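Final report, Chapter 2: Outcomes

The project's central promise was a pipeline that accepts a single protein chain and returns its three-dimensional structure in a standardized token representation, suitable for archiving and comparison. That pipeline is now operational. To close this chapter, we reproduce one record exactly as it appears in the project archive, with the input sequence first and the structure output second.
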Amino acid sequence: MATSVASGSGQLHFQEAFLRGHGGRRAYTVRNIAVPLCMQKELSWASSLCRAVAGRTTATAGIAGYAVRHIAAATWSPTTCMDLSQHCWCSRWKGFGAAGISLPAWLLPYAHAQSIGSRVEYAKRGYIPMCHGVSKGLQITKSNYFQPHIKGECNLRRTVIRSYLREGHNKYFDFAVIGSGVAGLRYALEVAKLGTVAVITKAEPHESNTNYAQGGVSAVLCPSDSVESHMHDTIVAGAYLCDEETVRVVCTEGPERIRELIAMGASFDHGEDGNLHLAREGGHSHRGIVHAADMTGREIERALLEAVRKDPNIFVFEHQFAIDLLTSQDGSDTVCLGVDTLNTETHEVVRFISKVTLLASGGAGHIYPNTTNPQVATGDGIAMAHRADAVISNMEFVQFHPTALADEGLPAKPKEARQNAFLITEAVRGDGGILYNMDMERFMPMYDERAELAPRDVVARSIDDQLKKRNEKYVLLDISHKPRDKILSHFPNIAAECLKHGLDITRQPIPVVPAAHYMCGGVRAGLQGETNVRGLYVAGEVACTGLHGANRLASNSLLEALVFARRAVQPSIDHMKSSRVDRGASYSWARPIMPKSLGKTVLNNISLKTREVRRELQSIMWKYVGIVRSTTRLEKAEMRIGELELEWETYLFQHGWEPTVVGLEACEMRNLFCCAKLVLSSALARHESRGLHYMVDYPHVEESLRLPTIIFPSSPVSSSWSSRQLHR
């Protein structure tokens, strides 16, 4: 039978030959694929994009020698201060009084603003300075469309925009960036040169996965290293599922992205010879990882945020939880026109209308109970994109970091349970750390000839096997045989955290256990971060670019984020210049509403029920969809999660909740359910063991299945609340 499915602005046609059926899942071989000319990347490792009419369908498609499997805030936060002599924002307020400069009364509140949070508060009151580069769509509320970039001298003036953060309030920007990690901030700094940018962040700007990245950024910076070697390491770690073109692009462009960070003020460690100190981690053939001790992500985030604060065209919106993307249909195309957000401090809804949207919202670590991810990592971006009909890929490949700190093995246990596990960077093993079981027997050489330097999937499975065989709760990672001064200089953050709990890593081994760490899958992207949804780009952990394949090589995550954030800039600018956004478009979608009318008692009960359901979902995922899997256990998880979701949604709606009602805990739960089901569907479709996906009933790699898993949009008619947009 012949099937036609939507892709970009064209059609993707293919024939389906039925192979086999299994319950609600079907498998097909797909032939004769015509790729539309609109695609910006040759889809060598995947198909173009299609939409399943209903249900969940599984297919295998031969494309260019490969195959594809598919399954059916209301304020501007400017930099704190302004140097009147230079007509730009900077940090020189204190000199005004001494210089005899008298500030206008409306500007005085800014003189004492010393943080992004306080600047946001002043902006709420209507103190919004305008500089060159701010589009007339922001300056003049009567304008019907976004206007082109305005150049000229910066004119500081008081402009009161309707920014009361009431339901019904709209914001208009050229670019909306969802997420304030390395990908979102790096992208914002580039597109801000040609338009206004809203950076929308769920908590404080620094609270992102980037800030928790310890190890470093991998790049070819050593004369003895090469692009070919970095590519080889990446592809081997990815179990040969990586897209070779993507790998080459990232490994080639990586060094320049590092040099850009350094030029922006990021400070990395240097050796005694004055050159960058390059570390080595598991899976790497050479030393090629730049780092700032064991706090690399924090240093990169610091440098980028400092640059963002100085940019008059970038507006930071804190404590804005992204609810759903705003999409419409243009023929067969889905078009993204912005995002609805919930201000988690004022509990009111803000609608951002934008010409271009970048999703850089991180991963979904909190579908598991033990994760190194911060609390904000609840899969919001992946879930929103899926509901907006974006194609999702490779969600079965969840990376469990082998070495998170096992609190129960510390001499002095933390008084309260951590919200996220404390990471013990891969670099500890790269610097010579050795793994032992509780009898101080070194075990990694029994599992892999690379021992502690094997890729993460191998090490995590080896630790998991030791724990199950020996009925132990953690293993030991020992670096104490190295010189004390080198341990403390390379791992000061880890040493300090352990010492807080009575453990001296220069003398004692560190108790460690695997924890959910990174999503190798995500929203499917081309070589320029483009998706099948027009106007929607992705970068960072939320994206699936083909770089990581079935397992991410250590320290390739920040690298990928930097490269794709930069590559998404030009197509985004081109799209922005060719787009016109009708201000009346903001009324095209039903508005999310707050559940104020339900009353405090009902809301408290809903909150308690949601937390209980969240813990149960995480427990199911850890028990049945963890490091080692089986078809029987995956199917049991699928059944239990389906029942749990139905139970939770029934409870909500029986207590007065409506499909358009929003609250932080409920919306996070909605996204966690969505992501958990995406992981499960992908895992059930892969009948082999490859990389991070290990199946006891399919223990071997099958060359014929060296294909990415693709999840296409499905019919929203009978879907759950977690699977459909609120405004549909």
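Archive annotation: The longest strand covers residues 10-22.
This record, like all others produced under the grant, will remain available to the consortium after the project formally closes.
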